[in-house]
Amino acid sequence: MELSGGLHSNGFIQGQAIIQSAKTIDRAAEDLVCKAESMGLMVGDVDRVIGPAMGAINISGDIARHISFRSELFDCLSGYTEKAYDGARKYMVLRQVCIRRAERIVLCDDVLSTGLNVRLAAEAILRAYGIVLPFVFVLANRSGLQEIDGRRIVSLIDYPMKTWEAGKCPLCAAGSKVFSPDSAEILAKLNWED
Ligand SMILES: [Zn+2]
Predict the structure, then answer these.
(1) Ligand 1: distance of its center to the CA of 114 in Å?
(2) What is the distance in A from the centroid of ligand 1 to the CA of 15?
(3) How far is CA 62 from CA 5, 65, 75, 111, in A?
């Protein structure tokens, strides 16, 4: 399996499987907010929830809504970043959103694989003079990490999975065929298996 960042792995977690259900994602967002509170987050401190596209586009809004509904006084906003390239260097830019200076922002993502996208989203926020709070909300954490740059991961599913650089992948060395989870071949199998 080739993940979106180019790493190889022996497994894949499809975030969309949770996100596609309005009820499931709603409960998941509520559970994440409760869990973060139990880990010390003051929800009234969160001005906005932001994560990297595509995975975080929907869940940032779901989490922000649950924070907002905690009090008449809260109006937590949401937003997302998109990847961009400077030559071969990947970075993230804020899209469809203009954050205020010193806005307090918590990061989110659907599935955490290496933490790179979340790290790049944090850099985009810092460049825009936002404050990145010390929590990262994720539905599923497959990275094996507990924190990213000192920001604690708040996850509902913890399921560490191995990843390798393509050139060092033992599955490829053993003759295994590489495929992308988004490939037409795999989607056809998932949708039409007899
Ligand atoms: Zn491989």
Answers:
(1) 16
(2) 22
(3) 25, 5, 13, 15
Strand, helix or coil for residue 132: strand
**CATH number, residue 169:** 3.40.50.2020
Question: Residue 34: inside a domain, yes or no?
Answer: yes
Residues with CB under 5 A from ligand 1 (ion): 8, 169, 171-172
pLDDT grade for 12, boundaries at 50, 70 and 90: confident
Domain range for 124? 8-192
Number of domains in the chain: 1
Question: Quick check: is 2 in a domain?
Answer: no
Q: Give the whole-number percent of the chain exceeding pLDDT 70.
A: 98
DSSP-derived letter for residue 165 is -
Ligand 1 midpoint to CA 160 (Å): 17
Between the alpha carbon of residue 48 and those of residues 32, 103, 108, 140, the distances in Å are 15, 7, 11, 21
